[in-house]
Amino acid sequence: MACPYFYPTERLARTLWPHPERLPLGGGFDGFCRARPEAEFCPGKARLREHCNLGYARGQCSDFPPGAETDAVRFAISEEGEEILLLSYVLERDHRPFAHGLLRYQTSGRRLLAAPADPVLQRQAEAYADGYLRSKPHPSS
Q: Which end of the chain has fewer surrounding CB within 10 Å, N or C?
């Protein structure tokens, strides 16, 4: 479950976690915080490690909006086809579902077929799907 305000930009080659593949987006990411409406900013290593990549930062991160509707975003692969991954997402508040939906990800183009209105959700879904595909064994030639 990543923070709903975390916009992942790139997978971290260096690791801040002992098992980054177990993280909610399938790896550790650098990125921006979009919790402040006036401007996004780089949260720093400690926040990336403790809040951005893990979610549930309400009351712990000084930039997390107190009136936020959601605390975290969770993804799962619902269906895997030859060209399409069907991603389920759940927006959580207080460890309970708040909202949910499905997204279609084209594996060959590495993109969502219909982007959600929220660019953070879109980017997190793309990062999750990419991590899922990276974890799959490649067929040998």
A: C
Residue whose C-alpha is closest to residue 50's, from 41, 65, 61, 37 = 61
Domain-embedded: residue 96: yes
Instruction: Give the chain's end-to-end CA distance (angstroms, integer).
Output: 36
Instruction: Pick the closest to residue 1 from 56, 45, 48 (CA basis).
Output: 56
DSSP states of 64-116 as a string? S-TT-S-SEEEEEEEEE-SSEEEEEEEEEETTEEEEEEEEEEETTTTEESS--
Query: For the chain, how many structural domains are there in total?
Result: 1
DSSP state of 59: T
Say if 84 falls within a structural domain.
Answer: yes
pLDDT value, residue 20:
86
Domain for residue 141, yes or no?
no
- Does the residue 1 lie in any domain? no
Please compute the mean of the pLDDT values over residues 48-64 and round it to a whole number: 93
Domain of 130?
6-135
